[in-house]
Amino acid sequence: MSNIKVRFAPSPTGFMHIGNTRTALFNWLLAQKHGGKFMLRIDDTDVLRSKPEYEAAIRDALHWLGLEWTEEARQSARFERYREITAKLKDKGLIYACYEMPEELEFMRKRLLAKGLPPIYDRSALKLSDAQIAKYRAEGRRPHYRFKLEEGEISWNDLVRGECHYSEKNLSDPVVIREDGSFLYHLPSVIDDVDFGITHIVRGEDHVTNTAAQIRMFEAVGGKTPVFAHLPLLTGKEGKLSKRLGSLGVKELRSEGMEPMAICSFLAKLGTSESVEPFYNLRDLAATLDFSKIGRAQPKFDEEELKHFNLRLIHAMPYSAVQKRLNISEEFWNAVRGNLEQVSDVDVWSEICNDEIEPLIEDKELTEAAAELLPAEPWNEETFGLWLSAVKNKSGKKGKDLFRPLRKALTGKENGPELKKLLPFIGRERAYKRLRGEKA
What we know:
- The protein is of the alpha/beta class and 440 residues long.
- Helix content is 45%, strand content 12%.
- The strands form 5 sheets. It has a 3-stranded parallel beta sheet. Strands 4-5-8 form a 3-stranded antiparallel beta sheet. Strands 6-7 form a two-stranded antiparallel ribbon.
- Helix 2 links the parallel strand 2 and strand 3.
- It starts with a strand and ends in a 5-residue tail after the last helix.
């Protein structure tokens, strides 16, 4: 596949939640794998609900995740283009005016369902006489507009779902323009995809029926129909969509100390036949993208599993992945990473090793004796074992009675990285003072 171009098209009516984060990720990975382009399209046609702060948060989330784009567009700047194409489609009879009120449409829908029939619009608006239209207009009714689906089977080869087939007879002509003249999602999206040369569309399986109708729109507008991939929707761990899942987003996960590559690695492999393994850069993750390995079942997203995975990723994270973010040596990172809950926690251990702390003295006799047994520098990871053996022989103590007082005196904490790794960074002078109960 060459010259691939994909788009992520969020509506700035809320923050980025975990579902559309996954959509953005798969689009980006597809472009990256094939040397293609990733476009950001802001779908801000809903003027009342679109907010600048939501758009800013979406952009910030994409940047933080590393999902950079090469091009962008804004639907609110393209209304003239939409009206131009719509006028041509009206002239061709492919967009037609309808005068039914919402309650009338609902009555028609219920009547069809009661008869055991699919609630398909019957195109009665096409049979209206000029007199009937004039009467409706005199009543103050304003028309909404539908796109007329051409007869015949609609089919495509979906990268996830395989061969998909829909009959036009089982689909309602979709409403494309509301009574107030505003556009619904369907047609502007198709016009944009044609104008910007989008070759592949990756989105949730809730759009499958939309795709069937939009294929007819691509044909009507005169553009090449893109390749589609419909991802199974995420569900909560209970197997159903939860309110928390719908609102959980990048902003919350970031504030909880999640790593962007933990989120990306987890979402990219969740629901696939591959194991969920840590990746430390998006290029390597993109190289593994394979739509044939995505299962059809809805994957269960468990926030707790993601948190555990985040810890796993941090504990094995190479220094190269954090070098630009932290002012520490590779030796220090490797010494403490296995005990971090967040990457930022490394600062705590850096301060413990390098700055003045208040030691916690639990067994004064033991720690003072231990201070006198500290060997001369230079120290390495073997120093602690030799020193501990000497302290054990001198004091007769072992286990927690030996380890805990030494750790609390040296670090001011009950738990943490192995002392054999920390001790060389603390150094003899600071260790001696702390063991004697002095600030150091």
